Amino acid sequence: MDFFPLLAHSPPLLAGAAILFGLCIGSFLNVVIYRLPKMLEREWRSQCEDFLGGATTGHPDTNATRLPKYNLLVPRSACPACGHKITALENVPLASYLVLKGRCSSCKAKIGIRYPLVELLAGLLSGYVAWRFGASQAALSALLFCWALIALTFIDADTQLLPDTITLPLLWFGLMVNTGNTFTDLGSAVWGAVLGYLVLWLVYWLFRIVTGKEGLGYGDFKLLAALGAWMGWQMLPLIILLSATVGAVIGLAGIMIAGREKGARIPFGPYLAAAGFAALLWGKSLNEWYLGGLAR
Predict the structure, then answer these.
(1) Could you tell me the mean pLDDT of each successive run of 10 residues in the chain, 296 residues long?
(2) Of residues 201, 198, 195, 281, the one with CA closest to residue 234
(3) Cα separation of 6 and 161, whole Å?
(4) Cis amide bond preceding 267, omega within 30
(5) What is 18-42 written as a DSSP string?
């Protein structure tokens, strides 16, 4: 029997293959999480320098600083402490971290525990998605959705940014996927995108008018719009309720346990991402349970 038909007819084997593939994707997501904000910062700085140079001399490139090439592929990953270039064997997901005992092979500096945790998270979630949806277009789409949410979660946690380079393609891909009614019908997906953006946009302006502060970022609007595009407007109340509840609980815990200041900004993207993932997998059941409870 050929390999791919074998995967299609064996859910455990499919899930196992998805876990291994997800571990590799998790390794790449670590690169995205670390480098994408730096790439955006370099781009913004270059644009500012071009603008300021052009405004004073009439030639946009006069004062622009030309930096070495830096993207998701170049330069090679290296130890931030000593600059040791990471070899292919040192970059094997999870295994290399365990073999190296969480330290650089050259200078013995500690490697952050989050690197293997992101790989493990991507692997386990990929395996569950493959088991949940089987060998189907829905599974492939859900995997891309899952990986994008992992990247957004950790980027927002680090920088309080939700890059357009991920949120906007995620939105458009959600609409494209649902042209075939994969997760919802196209009409619900379009209205999900529209209402997802507008709901948080209204919350943002109401909060700003009342308090004079910004409670949300525009990236949050775009992420909820993307989640609406994937699952339809019907899932938006559930996503908002789940994300707000989890965010409130973790925020209060941070104040009580970690001594976080009450006015400290808390990134909302991770809670939206977690709620969106839960809604994709169990949204219909959760909605039925929630609405059934209200009807009693």
Answers:
(1) 70 92 96 95 85 62 64 88 88 92 92 95 97 94 97 95 96 97 96 96 91 86 97 95 86 64 76 94 82 57
(2) 195
(3) 42
(4) no
(5) HHHHHHHHHHHHHHHHHHHHHHHHH
